[in-house]
Amino acid sequence: MASWPPSLPDQTGRVAIVTGANTGIGLVTAQELARAGARVHLACRNQDKAAAAMETIRREVPGADLALLPLDLGSLASIRESAEQFLATGEALHLLVNNAGLVGRGVTADGFEVTFGVNHIGTFHFTQLLLPRLEESAPARVVTVASRAHMRCKGIDFDAVRAPTASTTGFPEYSASKLGNVLFTAELGRRLAGTGVTTYAVHPGVVASDVWRDIPVGLRQLLTFFMTSVQDGARTSLYCATATELADRTGKYYVPVKEQTAKRLGTDDVLAATLWTKTEEWIAAYSPS
Fold first, then answer.
1. Given pLDDT bands bounded at 50, 70 and 90, which one contains residue 230?
2. Which CATH class is domain 15-286?
3. Catalytic positions, please?
4. Pick from 136, 18, 31, 117: which is nearest to 76 by CA?
């Protein structure tokens, strides 16, 4: 196993946003980017937990340059407010790590299936709103935590994503949301070609993190017993966020620090473009005029 903490390229002068940075992979990612010299905004739903995470990071990295950014990816209104709050700072943005995610049952504040709504639609909207600043700040990167679970998805039901969770476990919806992350990364890479903003989807491994928090306790304990640590899970996000050799790579999928080909529908360019269009339409329908 590689040593910890990892040795990252110097990030002094660079500004990052890490979603879901109050726990798990997101907390470790934020901590190590701060250790490498970046200014890191912790974009989190629960501000008390985010403040506690900030203190945790500062104990590990004295002098870490950190800021809190309220963000609930299950609410389009919150996403807009969060993006507006960051943009109002006037800061550059060199790195957006779309780490936050969940497996759950129900619907979001705007009526989307909760897992797909948070993992894909929320991530899509937040990224879109920050794209102008990313382009202004280029070279910049967008790293999105996907999952090998996308390989189990047989397709995206464009009606089901606007209804309550249909399955008992939420795993089919999770697989669809992670396919959405892979397709979004590929399509975003194509649309940003030549801008200096590059994109990466990562499978962190099967990690014992809070992504499983809405799974029943007994099943969650059984599942997480066999999972890898959050430190190992963060390695691929950190690699794609900082590795100099990836500066000319975009739209690709990475499984523990190696580029791989996404499987099944993850390489379907037509589906990626269709999902992009559909997602824009869904967001527009729920947005204020």
1. confident
2. alpha beta
3. 174
4. 117
